């Protein structure tokens, strides 16, 4: 039987919208060596901050020296898809489910601070605390698994045996001793490998080992440079993130739709038409995606993604928009527009590429134009 304070904290967390709550004592990470090897092997790609933060991830007490307990929480973001049939339309872009609504960092952080206030008022002792929502230097899936919220699946997501993996994770470090969970962790992936087989870019080196450099979520969000040519055609119409390894997971057949209003789809975030996105100015992008996770890709990164999807669509109806992108001030946009024109082909595309070749000064863009012209010819 959990003590009264622990029960009160769990009850309040549920009231604040956290479906899953678990508590464990502060201790050193048990997976830090594997994480260190993952970075050493280059699987983090260009996410240099992961290596810089590595020492802090060794122990939660490096984040808050007085930490006695870690409260691990999960909030459901599974929303029904009213436009699922349109997702297969190559003229439209797919956005990862977690980014359909408001930025979860803002939503969850506000709830965590309310939980901390409750603990301060209830614990009747001086409290020191820190809260984290995904972006902090903490190995959140390890602590969530220890707290019995679920297990880390072969797709590297935390999976709950009752309701699947559509969860945002968060943590509260507190300077009070709380009673830990004693429940038995249930569920496993067994012999299932559907997530590994379904990945269009073969990003899984092996079960539970992801090479971020091949992951479409990394390519469309974290990578700020050019997307490797050999991966572009495998991305289809995915323009921000990828949910494939979760969508095929049998455990997600148990997913329960969230009741959180902030995570409901914003207008225009469900399979938008690509040609309505490619002409966006930076100010239009900032306005449209204010308070949305999509802003993390930045304007030029998002346009890059949209242009790759247009190239995969392959419609000549997109050539006028790509001609405009080919003379954009950003080399990243121009280079991918050149690739997309090469994929579409035709005389108009060829003439646009030749015209830009005559005045282009960026080495990478020149290379992309040359390759595109070779494809056309």
Explain briefly what this protein structure is.
This protein has 377 residues and is an alpha+beta fold. The protein contains 16 helices and 10 strands.
The largest sheet is: 4 strands, antiparallel
Helices, by number, come to 16
Q: How widely separated are the two ends?
A: 74 Å
Radius of gyration over all CA atoms, rounded: 23 Å
- Beta percentage is 5-15%
The structure class reads: alpha+beta
Low-confidence stretches: none
Biggest sheet, spatial arrangement of strands: 1-2-7-4
Question: What is the helix fraction of residues, given as a range?
Answer: 25-40%
Order of helices and strands: HEHHEEHEHEEEHEEHHEHHHHHHHH
- Please provide the count of β strands: 10
Main attributes of the structure:
377 residues; alpha+beta; Leucine-rich Repeat Variant; four-stranded antiparallel sheet; two-stranded parallel ribbon; 16 helices; 10 strands; 11% strand
Structure write-up:
This protein is of the alpha+beta class. Among the domains are: 4-81 and 101-174, no CATH class; 273-377, Leucine-rich Repeat Variant. Helix content is 38%, strand content 11%. The chain is built from 16 helices and 10 strands. The chain has a 4-stranded antiparallel beta sheet with strand order 1-2-7-4, sandwiched between helices. It has a two-stranded parallel ribbon with strand order 3-10. A two-stranded antiparallel sheet has the order 5-6. A hairpin with a 5-residue loop joins β5 (151-152) and β6. The longest helix has 20 residues, at 104-123. The N and C termini lie far apart (74 Å).
């Amino acid at each position: 039987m959990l003590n009264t304070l622990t029960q009160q904290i769990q009850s309040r967390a549920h009231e604040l919208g956290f479906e899953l709550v678990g508590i464990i004592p502060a201790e050193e990470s048990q997976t830090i060596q594997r994480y260190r090897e993952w970075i050493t092997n280059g699987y983090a790609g260009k996410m240099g901050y992961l290596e810089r933060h590595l020492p802090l991830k060794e122990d939660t007490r490096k984040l808050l020296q007085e930490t006695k307990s870690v409260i691990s929480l999960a909030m459901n973001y599974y929303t029904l898809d009213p436009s699922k049939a349109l997702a297969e339309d190559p003229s439209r872009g797919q956005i990862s489910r977690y980014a359909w609504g408001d930025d979860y960092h803002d939503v969850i952080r506000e709830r965590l601070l309310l939980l901390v206030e409750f603990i301060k008022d209830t614990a009747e002792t001086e409290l020191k605390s820190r809260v984290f929502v995904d972006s902090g230097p903490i190995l959140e899936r390890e602590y969530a698994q220890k707290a019995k919220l679920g297990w880390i699946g072969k797709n590297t997501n935390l999976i709950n045996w009752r309701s699947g993996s559509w969860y945002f994770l968060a943590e509260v470090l507190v300077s009070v001793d709380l009673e830990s969970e004693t429940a038995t962790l249930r569920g496993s992936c067994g012999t299932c490998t559907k997530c590994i087989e379904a990945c269009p870019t073969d990003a899984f080196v092996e079960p539970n080992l992801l090479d971020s450099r091949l992951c479409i979520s990394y390519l469309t969000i974290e990578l700020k440079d050019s997307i490797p040519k050999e991966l572009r055609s495998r991305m289809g119409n995915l323009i921000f993130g990828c949910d494939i390894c979760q969508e095929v997971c049998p455990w997600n057949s148990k997913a329960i739709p969230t009741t959180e209003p902030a995570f409901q789809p914003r207008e225009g975030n469900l399979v938008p038409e690509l040609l309505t996105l490619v002409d966006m100015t930076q100010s239009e992008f900032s306005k449209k995606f204010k308070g949305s996770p999509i802003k993390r890709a930045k304007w030029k990164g998002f346009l890059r993604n949209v242009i790759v999807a247009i190239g995969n669509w392959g419609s000549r109806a997109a050539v006028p928009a790509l001609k405009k992108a080919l003379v954009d001030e950003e080399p990243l946009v121009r280079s991918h527009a050149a690739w997309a024109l090469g994929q579409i082909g035709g005389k108009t595309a060829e003439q646009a590429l030749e015209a830009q070749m005559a005045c282009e000064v960026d080495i990478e863009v020149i290379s992309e134009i040359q390759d595109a012209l070779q494809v056309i010819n």
